Amino acid sequence: MMPKKQEMMLLRQEQVGEDIFRLTLQGEVAALPGQFVQVGVAPALDPYLLRPFSVHDCSPDTLTLLYRIAGRGTLLLSRRQPGEMLTVTGPLGRGFPAGKADRAVVVAGGMGAAPLLYLLRFLRAAGKDVAFFYGARTAAGLVLQDSYRSLADEYTAATEDGSAGKKGLVTQFVHPALSGKKADLYACGPLPMLRAVAALAKEAGADCYLSLEARMACGVGACLGCVIRGADGGWRRVCTDGPVFRAEEVFGR
Amino acid sequence: MMPKKQEMMLLRQEQVGEDIFRLTLQGEVAALPGQFVQVGVAPALDPYLLRPFSVHDCSPDTLTLLYRIAGRGTLLLSRRQPGEMLTVTGPLGRGFPAGKADRAVVVAGGMGAAPLLYLLRFLRAAGKDVAFFYGARTAAGLVLQDSYRSLADEYTAATEDGSAGKKGLVTQFVHPALSGKKADLYACGPLPMLRAVAALAKEAGADCYLSLEARMACGVGACLGCVIRGADGGWRRVCTDGPVFRAEEVFGR
Amino acid sequence: MTPDLTVKIGKLTLRNPVMPASGCFGYGEEYAVFYSLEQLGAIVVKGTTAKPWTGNPPVRLAETPAGMLNAIGLQNPGAEAAREKIRQLQQYNTPVIVNVAGHSPKEYLQVIRILDEEPAVSAYELNISCPNVRDGGLAFGTDPQVVNTLVQAVRQATEKTLIVKLSPNVTDIVAIARAAEDAGADALSLINTLLGMAIDSETRRPLLANLTGGLSGPAIKPVALRMVWQVSEAVHIPVIGMGGITCAADAVEFLLAGATAVAIGSAHFINPTVCPEVVQGIAAYLTRHGFRAVREIIGLAKKAAGGEGEKDAGKDHCRS
Amino acid sequence: MTPDLTVKIGKLTLRNPVMPASGCFGYGEEYAVFYSLEQLGAIVVKGTTAKPWTGNPPVRLAETPAGMLNAIGLQNPGAEAAREKIRQLQQYNTPVIVNVAGHSPKEYLQVIRILDEEPAVSAYELNISCPNVRDGGLAFGTDPQVVNTLVQAVRQATEKTLIVKLSPNVTDIVAIARAAEDAGADALSLINTLLGMAIDSETRRPLLANLTGGLSGPAIKPVALRMVWQVSEAVHIPVIGMGGITCAADAVEFLLAGATAVAIGSAHFINPTVCPEVVQGIAAYLTRHGFRAVREIIGLAKKAAGGEGEKDAGKDHCRS
Ligand SMILES: Cc1cc2nc3c(=O)[nH]c(=O)nc-3n(C[C@H](O)[C@H](O)[C@H](O)COP(=O)(O)OP(=O)(O)OC[C@H]3O[C@@H](n4cnc5c(N)ncnc54)[C@H](O)[C@@H]3O)c2cc1C
Ligand SMILES: Cc1cc2nc3c(=O)[nH]c(=O)nc-3n(C[C@H](O)[C@H](O)[C@H](O)COP(=O)(O)OP(=O)(O)OC[C@H]3O[C@@H](n4cnc5c(N)ncnc54)[C@H](O)[C@@H]3O)c2cc1C
Ligand SMILES: Cc1cc2nc3c(=O)[nH]c(=O)nc-3n(C[C@H](O)[C@H](O)[C@H](O)COP(=O)(O)O)c2cc1C
Ligand SMILES: Cc1cc2nc3c(=O)[nH]c(=O)nc-3n(C[C@H](O)[C@H](O)[C@H](O)COP(=O)(O)O)c2cc1C
Ligand code: FES
Ligand code: FES
Questions:
Q1: Structural domain harbouring A66
Q2: Are D168 and D196 in contact (CB under 8 A)?
Q3: B94, B242 Cβ separation under 8 angstroms
Q4: CB A218 to CB C268 under 8 A?
Q5: Which of D194, D220, D305 sits opposite C211 (nearest CB)?
Q6: How many whole angstroms separate alpha carbon D287 and alpha carbon A133?
Q7: Which residue, C45, C33, C58, is CA-closest to C125?
Q8: Is the CB of residue B83 less than 8 Å away from at least one CB of chain A?
Q9: Does residue B111 form part of some domain?
Q10: C238-294 pLDDT, tens per residue?
């Protein structure tokens, strides 16, 4: 779908965790899983830039975002009330592809879970067998677990401090899920986690798709502000060449 | 009272006319009638400056403002919700004095009515005989008439287009109220109205107190941004030498 | 009657006075999905150099109060590759202005040489905020003599409309403007970004890998307006005003200050359809105030101010 | 343990590095009702001239995105009357810095002559953004040679701590800074306001009666930080950083960029108790990060940036 700019009405603003909110807007942003939108958090010139958020879920008449208060922009966003209008541009970027294998292993780290709910829904609709791994530092970082669990065939949660699920880094528990049937790997989370997932994929010979982040201005590929260095040494714009990249493109083979 | 800066909770935000709101905040700003406060309209750096508003009413635990949406700042203010905190500095400036005469004639033009409700209350408490004149361009500009009427011994409304009260400029109807007992004159409204009131006062030999406006930055006399030229050719800071001035100080004798 | 929005910049007649600012619009394709670029007065493409430039390492962006810093470092594919992209823009039947950059006069001239035969290129905008490697890295745009020499050289190399884009990081922008005019520029555009910096108090590091970056957005609008006012009354060629425009009222302010056209940069990042919205807003403004043509309001604030513009513009009074 | 906040500026030891910026704090009395001025590192008073100045006609203020313009025009009661006000400040046991202005070197020297015997005056801050009437109205602060001459003359006239306040409206602030240092300045303060303008699109007039005014507030912070960074590594005397500080994090950024102390201007207008709040915030920051003294963080962002400061600070890379 072509991106467009629209004014969307805020329907619901739910606190679903410590500092974590689920925001539902009215209207259609025909997004693919892994795509994102740019949101005007406040009707003023400060903060100036839009804020990028992954599509957490979407339907023909709603768009749902899942976000954490990370600074001033997200704080202001969390104060917006039902009935208010927000400017939203999207869908933007390249999402997750359907993949070739019948099995999908999806790994979420903290807020990296945001785009993966819609991905689970999409994979399930495509008839895949889905294993979902959800990691966070502490129990407080695992939100909406019921929703994620209900969309996965296998569900594993892990926290670094063991306060919920298994104790350890989530990537430690992924290996068995890759040892059987050929699977595609999908992940979103902090960079060290993505690196670990890429290594697992390489070992298993699996296709691997990673969703990245960068500071953005335009979000549409025009300003060249969000580049990261690709494994070939060339630049990639996270907003339009990504945010989802093949693991090799970022970490090499 | 010494001014202070405080965070005040928004209790009520009532629309009382077209684009006109009454805002009630929790806390004490021990103001005299005619004094004003500086309000942070939004928790952001844009708009940057505070907005000055007269004390419309106040009690030991509330502060009430009456304001019109005049631009972006007041628009943002009108969107603030009950429970939110606003930064308020005050009381600021010199208010209306009690006056020497037993009778007070008070003239309001449009939003100039804002500081005069509290003045009426104050004059009544001082045992004065009060005549209140309330003018606006159209009926829509006359708000909270019942409150004003209940605090005045004589009440006259006028609109330029005759859509409510007498038809004409409110100042046309003030003369009779000055012809009997000696009275002090009080007014707040647009400059041409204030000029007319000052002329009426001069003619009647009455003491006359006018509340003025100017663009402000500090509101406390430090920046010298809000000056107007006094009748003697010298500068007056509206924020600290005013906002209430004796008519002669501004328009001469 | 819809007002006449046309304006002239050098040899070009623009259907309206609104164009994107260089570097904020890529080579046009990214925004063509939002609206037809035929709605623009002109298309201004990314700063283009003779050879490809890789630009600066990330982080390249930082948000600032009512603005942003960028340190893209003129990443661009070079003039040859740019030409292919520019050809794609011909479909929009809108003049294409190529922003030209280089580290030496020779590099600027190479770009002109590569592009000058290309009919898809309507005009050049010389970005003289680039560091002059020969002259110790100080930007070309900070010395009137250097500007004069560079602009003369380019003037001799092309018949196309030549716009010179001024840097605001100077003591006397009027002197630079006059130097460019004297050297044969057809128009001036201003302002480029203000040199700024951001530091993260928590990590205790500059936010940009390049340390400093260019400040753009509403924060700089007052500086831009002042410079457009000063320059437009000091020269006889048209001025394209920019710096912090986010809406039609902002654009009108620049026109009133003396700009013949306006460019919109970082506001694209908060509103991808800002340009067509500003075009419509200017037309609505003209209609509402009874003007028949946008030309009628160019410099009008100066007449209101009693023509005492240059004298008063910051020279005679101590400001604070 | 509460961290050591003291810093030295010339002959003065300040109890903390926070002071109001000149012109935003009157002669102190207006803010003394909000808190005891003993909480300040220093008190900086309004620009003071030999004779009273009436300043500019109103409108003198305009709000801008994340900032404001002022065109007060240095209204002040003159040095004699100022002295009386300054004496009142002695009760706070806090150094008083007098901002000095004039239209000619002679006028600056007259102020010094009137105030130099006054023990209540601890230091001077020369405001060199004033138009130099003799030199055709261009500000003193835009020419290194003129700065050097002026500062030398004042240096010879006083033993008190001499701070020179730099104008940001220049091509090369480092050259001006060095000229002031060479002439004997004990410290530099920067930045003064950027020259700007605002136009009302509806009335089609400039908002300020003076047409142009000085831009201050958060909008200019990136420019101020960049200049503080550049200047503090080019000179050997302390720098007082200012421009857009509204909270402790902003102040810390200036210290990390190389400022020894900070001044807070227009933020007073949005928060009358900003100075003591910033003092407390800096102390909390130091404690949280395990620093024992504010001196430990001065210039720390430069070390983080690998010391390549001056070279990289906007010279070698084309910014956009
Ligand atoms: C494609 C994409 C998708 C995203 N999806 C989500 C999501 O679904 N849910 C969610 O909670 N967050 C998401 N983010 C991150 C989100 O954009 C930032 O948390 C947000 O912009 C921070 O804004 P702020 O004003 O609150 O914080 P700021 O005050 O601007 O910064 C706070 C912190 O956030 C970091 N930050 C700022 N901007 C970005 C950015 N663009 N990308 C990454 N980090 C940033 C800063 O480094 C800083 O440490 C996404 C980012 C990208 C690029
Ligand atoms: C002492 C004082 C008391 C006031 N009391 C009240 C009150 O009780 N109720 C009320 O509705 N308004 C009052 N005002 C006016 C009020 O401050 C302005 O309407 C408000 O600041 C406009 O802010 P804005 O952002 O909405 O408009 P802006 O976008 O800033 O401006 C909109 C219009 O308002 C005018 N304006 C802006 N600032 C001021 C100012 N400080 N004074 C006068 N006009 C201004 C501008 O010229 C412009 O035409 C008072 C002003 C002063 C100085
Ligand atoms: C991301 C970005 C890239 C830019 N690239 C260029 C460029 O290549 N050439 C140029 O002359 N100006 C460049 N500029 C400056 C803009 O064209 C414009 O002059 C400046 O941003 C001020 O306008 P604005 O406030 O509307 O953004 C760039 C600005 C930004 C924000
Ligand atoms: C209303 C006002 C008056 C000022 N008066 C003076 C002055 O008299 N002398 C001076 O050197 N600077 C003066 N300045 C500049 C400030 O001292 C300071 O350098 C500038 O405002 C930047 O700091 P800020 O962004 O914190 O306001 C004034 C600034 C403002 C806003
Ligand atoms: S954010 Fe502008 S190119 Fe990616
Ligand atoms: S608003 Fe600052 S002196 Fe009146």
A1: 5-92
A2: no
A3: yes
A4: yes
A5: D305
A6: 39
A7: C45
A8: no
A9: no
A10: 999 999 999 999 999 999 999 999 999 999 999 999 999 999 999 999 999 999 999
Contact status of C23 with chain A (Cβ, < 8 Å): yes
Task: Please tell me the total count of domains within chain B.
Answer: 1
Asked whether the predicted pLDDT for residue D119 surpasses 70, the reply is: yes
In a domain, B162, yes or no: no
Residue B103 in domain: no
Q: Which one, of C47, C170, C108, C212, lies nearest residue D315 by Cα?
A: C212
Out of D25, D60, D272, name the one closest to residue B227 (CB): D60
Q: Is D302 on the interface with B (CB under 8 A)?
A: no
**Which chain D residues touch C175 with a CB distance below 8 Å?**
none
Number of helices (H) and strands (E) in chain A: give both, helices first: 6, 16
| B146 at C interface, C-beta within 8 A | no
Q: Give the CATH number for residue A40.
A: 2.40.30.10
Scored b (16 or more CB within 10 A) or e, C108-122 reads bbbbbebbeebebbb
D292-to-B209, D255, D277 alpha-carbon distances in Å: 57, 15, 19
Q: Give me the half-sphere count of Cα atoms (radius 13 Å) on the Cβ side of residue B107.
A: 30
Asked whether the beta carbons of residue B49 and residue D68 sit closer than 8 angstroms, the reply is: yes
- Residue B12 inside a domain? The answer is yes
For ligand 4, say whether the CB of D49 is within 6 Å of any of its atoms: no
Q: Is A68 exposed, middle or buried (0-12, 13-18, 19+ CB in 10 A)?
A: middle
Chain-centre distance for alpha carbon A96: 10
* Residue closest by Cα to atom 37 of ligand 1: A215
Give the whole-angstrom CA distance, residue A111 versus residue A219.
Answer: 20
- C288 three-class SS: helix
Peptide bond into A227 cis (omega under 30): no
**Beta carbon pairs, C and D, within 8 Å:** 248
Confidence of residue D318 (pLDDT cuts 50, 70, 90): very low
Annotated catalytic sites of C, by residue? 130
Query: The dihedral of CA D197, D203, D204, D209: what is its sign?
Result: negative
Estimate to the nearest angstrom the gap between the alpha carbon of D5 and the chain centroid: 19
What ipTM was estimated for this complex? 0.96
How far away is chain C from the Cα of B217, in angstroms, using its nearest Cα?
Answer: 13
The per-residue pLDDT for range B24-77, each reduced to its tens digit, is 999 999 999 999 999 999 988 999 999 999 999 999 999 999 999 999 999 999
Q: What pTM, to 2 d.p., does this model score?
A: 0.96
Number of neighbouring beta carbons within 10 Å of residue A226: 28
User: Within 10 A of B241 (CB to CB), how many other CB atoms are there?
Assistant: 20
